[in-house]
Amino acid sequence: MADSMLRRLLRLVAGIAVSAVGIVMMLRANIGLEPWSVLQQGISQSTGMTYGVASMLVGAIAIGVAVLYGERFGVGTLLNIFLCGACIDLLLWLDWVPQMHSLPAGIAMLLGGLELLVLGTWMYMRSALGVGPRDALMVALARKTGRSVGLCRVVIELGAIVVGYLLGGQVGLGTVIGGVGLGSLFDLNFHLLRFQAAQLHQESMAETLHRLRGRRPQP
Prior knowledge:
It is built from 9 helices and no strands. By secondary structure, it is mostly helical. The radius of gyration is 17 Å and the shape is globular.
């Protein structure tokens, strides 16, 4: 059982890392930011905090709202908030992902980043240790409305674009592609992978702690 928990944690961390790479690729595409990045860049520019710290702040607010809608709060949620932001800041500092300077290259980089974000999300959601804060909002809305996960993602991210733009975030062709295409990519990938995000039970923090306590030898 300990090995099973370790595998789940490794899957969670790997998914977060893949998602972080996808986000950095979208930032480096240089054709306009995807919806959440517009919001986080706007906050970063307005406050002077790094992009990663702005991502952590947005994540904390998102999970707070999702909890109000009845979504579970897990170990994976906390790791997603803090680890993803730290990974993004590290990757930006290392400057391993080149910035694109032409429209075709930018579109290719953006699409690759979107796909990695979706695959990373699938990876860490499968760990069932608690979804990421933005995904918690997506799943909570899907459960409440009975609509598809992709449609709910589009609605949420359109709101992020508006707020981010008002704060000074970069909006462009990439924003349109990300805002419209990301929801479709979620639906397509989850369908091909036979993954029902809204039906998956995500383990709460209390459940994880209870499970770990249950493995300890009895005195």
